[in-house]
Amino acid sequence: MPAAYKELIDGETFIRAALNAPHELLCDRLHAAVAAHLPANSALRLLPRRTPITLREGAEICPDLALVRGPTSQLYLAAEVLQPGDHHPDTVLKKQLYADARTPRLWIVDSRYQNTEVYVSGEFGFRLEAILAGRETLADPAVTGLALSMNDLFAKP
Length: 157
Fold this sequence. Notes:
With 157 residues, the chain is an alpha+beta fold. The protein contains three helices and twelve strands, in the order E-E-H-E-E-E-E-E-H-E-E-E-E-E-H.
């Protein structure tokens, strides 16, 4: 099980709990699906999970999945996999940071409800594009061919 880690949100340090096996399995599946559909010549790069990213001064976060634009390393897509008892930093604080940084895409993966919320950056912040569950598939216009069904993402090991 991965160790606890730190994130800095608006100058405040948050010690994030060690991550459990179900959380890491979801991260594995997300990373594998995105990596399998990201062409070698893509303008996007998939970072290792929880790579620290500075969104602004006083805000260094560690997304479970991050796609950045090649030369600039500007965040294009972040995914946060929720862990029971530790939702607030991901669903409120970090979501606001991503919106303020005008991150184009955000996925919030929730194992409790076996769904994924897909947010898209717009003129007034994030817009909830979809809440995916069951046979619905997670896709992204920049990751050609990605079609990860929620049943597959949340399947029992």
